[in-house]
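Researcher: Good morning. I'm working through a list of sequences from a screen, and I'd like to move beyond sequence-only analysis. For each chain I'm collecting a predicted structure so we can compare shapes side by side. This is the next one on the list. No need for commentary yet; just the structure.
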Amino acid sequence: MNDKSEYPDSYYLHSANIITSRGQLTETVDADVCVIGGGFTGLLTALNLAEKNYKVVLLEAHKIGWGASGRNGGQVGSGHNKKIQDLESDYGKDLARRLWNLAEDAKGIVRDRITQHKIDCDLSFGNMHVSDDIRDLKKHQEYVEKLNNDYNYDSISYLDEEEVYEMFHSPLFKGGGSLDMGGMHLHPLNYLLGLADAAERAGVLIYEESEVINYKGQDKKVVNTKRGQVNTSTIVLACNGYLEKLEKRIAGKIMPINNFILATEPLDDGEARYINRDNVCAHDNKFHVHYFRMSQDNRLLFGGGENYTTKFPSNLKSYVRKTMLDVFPKLENKKIDFAWGGTIAVTVNRMPHIGKLDSGVYFSHGFSGHGIAMASLAGTIMAEAIDGFSKRFDVFNEVKIHTYPGGTLLRWPGFYLGMLYYSLKDRL
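Model: Good morning. Structure tokens for this chain:
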């Protein structure tokens, strides 16, 4: 069955592999673990546990891949949403190295799962960081040298302004860049659909259109939906930007924000190579980051712009196109075929929030734009912790995640003012 009618429209939906429709939870079922959320985090948690012979039920409020996991930019970068120098400054060299190693594990999980399950998701290599500020040339050099020399990471190299121009032919990027051939890009929805199929083959029971209303209990827990319930001893919260009021104790640790992407009409081969010679993905140095890559059928996929309300801008195509033309003015006459958005979650320090609340309640969210790799890691290490092996999971206990000032009530106005400041700074 390939029912796409209940998904938000996007290029990814247009080019998706077979989508299987799964039924609602309408009865009472028992499980060793109940996973709430059908994105990368939830599916990797469920898959890993099922492979260890746990009985797992996964509840998705909408459809598998409906949320940001199925709508994001498709970029898989190295490290975290902090430069390695900042990790060392904030956490010390020992913890910084362990966090770097975990981020390398994350990329390996993505690669290995795609290979293991033969997931057709357009996996390609090459992740580029570029800048419009000539003062960043030295920063790129220092970053590359740091990873080369101190972390023995030789997949990254420095590119000067001319080399960056030859790759993208954009008039905007004056500050050079770094090319990470250990980074990747892929079709996120197809990666996710492949994980869902793999999870079901491993024995996971997946229910769609089964929004969780609440959960109750200590040692024995009951997870309630509108039409059914799950009896379990262990719960995994894998909701990210859609957590809302389900768990108030951690909701204030994340800020849901909306990010937007467009897809042009297909370009011919010459046009595609002119704006992305080596078929890499790229992102810039803006606080409100812009990112882009080519699709398999030669469309430019360009992301840019955010808002902090419950609604998307009324005309997303025009909203994102303006920024796209700043980067690639030669595309002025190209048609925009698709534009869409998704809701992600960011933390105050842009590090993922992974942990355990009380007996048998695990959570992971706040991937801050690094969701494909970090969520894949989170699902894997939460499954390890549930199975009694918590070495990798416990590393994140050392990364303190602050609550947004004012918690869930006042985080919006404070965050908005902060974003306004950085938005103005980006324009200077």
